[in-house]
Amino acid sequence: MSSSESLPSVKSVQSDFSTKEVTGDDTQSTPLDGGYGWGLCAGTGIGLICIPSIAILPQWFSKKISLANGICSAGAGIGGLIICFSTKGMLDSLGLAWSLRITAAVAFSVNLTAMLLIRSRDNQILLPAQGIFNFHLRSYHVLLLLGWSFVIMFGFITLMFSLSNYASTIGSSERDAAMVPAMLNLGAAIGRPVIGFASDYYGRVEVAGILTFTCGVLVFVLWIPTTTYGMLLLFAVVGGTILGIFWAVICPLATEVVGLKKLPAFLPIAWLSVVIPSAGKSRTI
């Protein structure tokens, strides 16, 4: 599982755990130790692992940066696909408590291995000492990139956190509803390397704009009219290929706009720009 983009995998675990009714000897769930507490801990962990690692990959590539980032972010789709199926099986056979323990152990092992293997080239690149906001934020291109990030994250969070619930509203069973995020992750695993290759060949800005528009069209053409489970699965696979375009191209786009040396200073601003759309949608779930 790629540490560069963990939301699909996190959502897969959250969906499966949230459908498990806690009864018998298990402790009753409250908003704090259930949704909000889980979200706070998971978000903190993702932030500590994901944010520092994203800026490292472009340091190792002078060409094909988007392709490399696409392959890296596709790991989250593969990991999410595995989590979707394995978590459901663990819940059915082992119960909630052991499912959580096993998931935590797997996440710890994978991330520990990645942290031991990853290497930075900060010394070779000679990154200047700089604060978070010490470059011209009012640059026209920077503001456009931040605006795109703000808008695209609304769509990403809405689809990622709504499709499984939508499957239930059209009469799908719990097992069928759990299959929807799995297909979404399958699409992500397939589509993100392709997005990276296309971005390097046709241009990062051009591909990001076209795919953002395409994703919006797919929502109106496939998702909104959908009343059958089969069509919803089709939308999940097709939409998944371009759904996480933000995570696939944000680092190459930022490198192109602000340069490699200013990338570590820009990325925290990009994360701040997507807080409101991420938190705003999560309040309705």
Structure description:
The protein is mainly alpha-helical and 285 residues long. It has one domain: Growth Hormone, Chain: A, CATH 1.20.1250. Helix content is 76%, strand content 0%. The protein has twelve helices and no strands. It has helices at 7-18, 32-54, 65-94, 96-117, 122-125, 140-169, 174-202, 204-223, 229-243, 245-258, 263-273, 275-282. The longest helix has 30 residues, at 65-94.
Number of strands: 0
Biggest sheet descriptor: none
Unreliable spans are 1-10, 18-32
CATH topology: Growth Hormone, Chain: A
Helix content: over 70%
Radius of gyration: 19 Å
What features would you highlight for this structure?
285 residues, mainly alpha, Growth Hormone, Chain: A, 12 helices, 76% helix, transmembrane helix
